[in-house]
Each structure stands twice: as structure tokens, then as C-alpha cells.
Amino acid sequence: MTVEITSKIVGYRIKQQEPTAPNPTLPEEDPLTVRIPSRPEGTLEAVSEKISYVGAEGRKKVYLLVSFMPVEGVVGGKRVVIERPVEFFFPSGQLSSEHQWITATMRSLSLAARGGYVTQAVADLRKVAWDKGLVRCGMNRWNKPMFHDSEVAAIAWSIQQILYRRGFLDQDGNQVPVESLVERYAHRMQHGHAWQPPVDDTSDEAGSGAVEPIGQAASTTDQASGPAVVGHCPECRGELIMMDGCPTCYAGCGWSKCG
Predict the structure, then answer these.
(1) What is the DSSP string of 188-219?
(2) Within 10 A of 206 (CB to CB), how many other CB atoms are there?
(3) Domain-by-domain residue ranges, the chain?
(4) In the prediction, which pLDDT does 19 show?
(5) pTM value?
(6) CA 145 – CA 159 distance, rounded (Å)
(7) Which of the residues 154, 216, 226, 229 could staple to 148 if both were Cys, CB 3.0 to 4.6 A apart?
(8) d(C-alpha 188, C-alpha 166), whole Å
(9) What are φ and ψ of residue 87, in 5° steps?
């Protein structure tokens, strides 16, 4: 194409090629904190757990359901999918006046799960204490009994263990990084089942591979997990600990010397 110049030339420049538009990058969206407005319709995968604990009022058992669903997000400019808990449910068949607080707590945890802060909510429940003495529930990684400050704390610990076995939390109740959650969900899609923790895993979640000496770890955990053993139960031969100045069985039967 010819262009006629009718005025005096005072300068020139070389025409540059038009820059190509860069590939648009997706805005970051952490799948751990994406808010889920409500429980989705249809079927969700769930874990059913029977939780048994022993307190001042003897042995109790409750059943809990935790539902999970895949959640999308954007990490490092890439779309990713992880699995998150979205619903905590307390079956109505066990409702009674003493269990109303459990139902209310499950509703609050469900809201926290859909809001993206369930890890902190469950950790806060672990700190709840009452004046009825310690509650025995579960075993630690060294196969020693766990003692908690209240029924609330015992059930919260049990929920943390459910989320740990599902791969959402580490063994100490801390949040697993989103990168690991992405890998675990990919494992789920590849192998057809949820990620499971290694058997007899005593290393930390960061994968340092350091294993504590069993004898030393057991003695440290004994001091941290509950009071000293003061004898054995005449009913079931389980261990007795001091509660409110009275030897009490926490091995299962709830026997107390003070009646």
C-alpha cells in the first residue's frame, strides 16, 4: 500500500509489532477457605463413628457422622480440587436432654466447615473444661489412654481423629497444607478410595522421618495424658487414678472407691 506524504518530514520511528496479550491468569482462590453457602443437594460421602468415653458418670457412647465433598480452588494459577468436611451430624435416635449440647455443637461445626475454618473450631473445642474431672477417650500414638478435660474436649479429639484418618488433618490436629490435600485427592481419583495414614506412623506430618525412642516417648506421654496410676480396679483390674481425692477406674467400668 502506497501512502503519499504531503508535508515536510521532521522525524521517523520504526513501527513495532503489536504486543500479544499475555495469557490471562486465574485469580488465587484457596480451596480450604472457599465458602460453601449450604449443603449441596444429593448424596455426600460420609464417615460414621462410634465414640466411647468414660467420665465421672460412667461409660457413654455416641454416634457421629461426618460428610465430605470435593471443593475446587485456584493455587499457583492452576485449578485444583481437594476434599473438605462440610457436615457434622448427630443421629436423632440418641437424643436426650444431656445430648442437646452435642446436637447444637454439630450444627455450629457444620457452619464452620462450610465457612472454611473447621480446623480452628475443633481445636477450640479441645480447650473446653468442666468440674467433673477428666474424661478418658481413645489411645494416643504410643497406645496409651488419652485423658481430656471434658466430654466436649473428648468428642472434639475424636472428630480430629476422623479428619486425620481421612487425610484432612495431621495426627496432632493441625491443618494439612493445601498442596498435600490436592495430592491426596488425586490419589483418591487414581486408586478409587480415600487416602489413609500409614500404619504405625510415628513420624511427624512434615515427613522428617525422625522416630522418637519408644521408652522415652511413652514416659513423656504418660505424664502429659493424665494423672499417675494409684492402683488397680477390684472390678475389672483396670488402672485407678485419683479424681476429686478418690481412686477411680478409668479402664472402662467407672468404679470408684468413694461410691
Answers:
(1) HHHHSS---PPTT--S-TT-------HHHHHH
(2) 9
(3) 45-191, 227-259
(4) 66
(5) 0.68
(6) 17
(7) 154
(8) 11
(9) -155, 130
Asked if 20 and 63 touch (Cβ cutoff 8 Å), the reply is: no
CA dihedral 187, 86, 66, 61 (to 10 degrees): 150
By DSSP bridging, strand 78-89 and strand 58-75 are: antiparallel
Q: How far apart are CA 147 and CA 140, in angstroms?
A: 10
CB atoms within 10 A of CB 176: 20
**Predicted confidence band of residue 94 (pLDDT cuts 50, 70, 90):** low
Determine which helix (DSSP H) or strand (DSSP E) holds 239, and give its type and residue range: strand 239-243
| d(C-alpha 219, C-alpha 79), whole Å | 46
Identify the bridge partners of residue 68 per DSSP, sorted by sequence position.
45, 85
- Spatial separation of the C-alpha atoms in residues 157 and 149, rounded to whole Å: 11
CA–CA distance, 107 with 143 (Å, rounded to integer) = 32
Beta strand 239-243 with 229-232: parallel, antiparallel or unpaired?
antiparallel
Q: 236-257: per-residue pLDDT in tens?
A: 777 777 766 677 776 556 677 7
- Asked if residue 75 lies in contact with residue 179, where contact means CB atoms within 8 angstroms, the answer is yes
- In three-state secondary structure terms, 256 is strand
Give 6-47 pLDDT, tens digit per residue: 777 666 676 777 666 555 678 889 999 999 998 888 889 999
Residues in the chain, total: 259
Assign residue 130 a region: left if phi > 0, alpha if psi is -120 to 50, beta otherwise? beta
Question: Among residues 46, 14, 16, 36, which one has the least CA distance to residue 162?
Answer: 46
User: Tens digits of per-residue pLDDT, 111-148?
Assistant: 999 999 999 999 999 999 988 889 999 988 888 889 99
Grid cell, residue 209, equals 522421618
- What is residue 170's three-state secondary structure? coil
